[in-house]
């Protein structure tokens, strides 16, 4: 009997596996067609079909182990299909009041809201569903609260149907962005890796930086940057780049925790590096009405500074800890040789940027770059395009998208609750009062909230919530719209680095064998720029290339000066943190140097920034002159 049950479960697993593959392929084909001229859908239809397919794929690929559990998952899929159909019917009928909904539609709405919270618990853990429940409790019982937080009474049916049909609900603007833009870029990253770009990026970064002091770590940083530009997933980037670079770092003298921390820091930066920015750029474009290309332009300088600072920290750490360089072996390929072998992997990236600059729609530009990737793959090695590999590619893209789409859907409950109760305006007013009109206090409060929420939420969900709750309060105090939203994004990304909830760190220690807390601490130290740069552009719009006088974005002398001053301040600050600048630094020297660097970062007050820069340069020259001859470790 037990054997029969085992065979039955095995058969169900196979059926679920086949169905998951079918749904994954359907999901990819659907999005490619939707981005093409051959299939025209409105935003509601695209969001609903995407959401239903993603939920079906998740429940099939992460199904319960027991037979009863699998039956329950099938019922959830059936409920999702029914709910999707009703949403399209309700949206197209323009129903505006619960009095016009049928009893069946009301019941389906309530059941699907409950199902969505449950599915998010299985996919993302307890933080986001817990937030959803908290906001729902406030929606239903806020009428009993006194003072500012009091709200009008909202019934269960009214709330459930509102979440189903509203543009701020389950199938609202956040999921719409995921359906129209984000999935295509996730697929683009998957296809680019599939045709061999991931290995090429690691190889060219290793050839360029691998033979300097701390070279394997530099290779990890810049290969992670190249990978993160297109896939935007910290954990995925860690696995791709770290598998090669972490063992090499350990071989040259980096300890387990530092090796893991460097890769975790570099991989997390992919979510702030244009052009993809972990797909949050599309959510930001939707929330701010700033064009996607402009957001990429605004994010470019801070992202470059993030990686330059990480690189400077590695140089300082490697010299302080006498990490040797790796000798270039006679047969090692040069950067030129590697580039000649795989230059075409850069073509899709530059094509994507060029098409978007030319004014082509983002979705259509992504479609064309995916097609170019496929052509490149067919030319370089057509044998890889077997049915098995193509299905695996589709499943990889769908799995990469699961948590993002489910988060974008379920966070609609929070956003819907904020809108129907008016809580956003109330919270914004309270935060403004707590800050007392002080931008720095506002920034610190926002950073703390971002880090707390970001520890338990995907970056996309964290950004959506805080862009509604916190960013408007910052704008009220005179912070530019782009700076306020990028500030929220940066701290949402940085929150993924410190333990105890740090996906990139967990992925890194799986390869390095390091300790979670020690690896997380090292990652925080290497990511020091990520904590400071947002405060710089909070005060100085030049860092995001925004000019308030003309309400335009672009490069001018002020932007260049700010970039140079902030770059020097951040990079030398990293040296102060790790204790080496031409020689080992004493504690008091590190403190003085750090203070000078922070003054340099206060470049919104130009005399203060220039004074800090002058002091930094004096210290730089002093350390150079007093360095003497430090014994170098022999290359290995």
Give keywords.
globular, two-stranded antiparallel sheet, 1% strand, 636 residues, 2 strands, mainly alpha
Strands of the biggest beta sheet: in what spatial order?
A: 1-2
N to C succession of SSEs: HHHHHHHHHHHHHHHHHHHHHHHHHEEHHH
From the alpha carbons, calculate the radius of gyration and give it in angstroms. Answer: 26 Å
Can you count the helices?
Answer: 28
Terminus-to-terminus distance: 62 Å
Set down the secondary structure blueprint.
Blueprint: H1 2-35, H2 43-61, H3 67-93, H4 103-124, H5 127-141, H6 156-165, H7 173-194, H8 197-209, H9 215-231, H10 234-252, H11 256-268, H12 280-288, H13 292-320, H14 335-342, H15 347-357, H16 362-381, H17 387-421, H18 423-435, H19 439-456, H20 459-469, H21 471-476, H22 481-494, H23 503-512, H24 516-526, H25 528-539, E1 546-547, E2 552-553, H26 557-578, H27 587-601, H28 606-625
Antiparallel strand pairs: 1-2
Helix pairs in contact: 1-2, 1-7, 1-17, 2-3, 2-7, 2-17, 3-4, 4-5, 4-6, 4-17, 5-17, 7-12, 7-16, 7-17, 8-9, 8-10, 8-14, 9-10, 9-11, 9-13, 10-11, 10-23, 11-23, 11-24, 12-20, 13-25, 13-26, 15-16, 17-20, 18-19, 19-20, 19-22, 20-22, 22-25, 23-24, 25-26, 26-27, 26-28, 27-28
Report on the structure:
With 636 residues, the protein is mainly alpha-helical. It starts with a helix and ends in an 11-residue tail after the last helix. It is built from 28 helices and 2 strands. The chain has helices at residues 2-35, 43-61, 67-93, 103-124, 127-141, 156-165, 173-194, 197-209, 215-231, 234-252, 256-268, 280-288, 292-320, 335-342, 347-357, 362-381, 387-421, 423-435, 439-456, 459-469, 471-476, 481-494, 503-512, 516-526, 528-539, 557-578, 587-601, 606-625, and strands spanning 546-547, 552-553. The protein is globular, with a radius of gyration of 26 Å. The longest helix has 35 residues, at 387-421. α8 runs antiparallel to α9 (215-231). A two-stranded antiparallel sheet has the order 1-2.
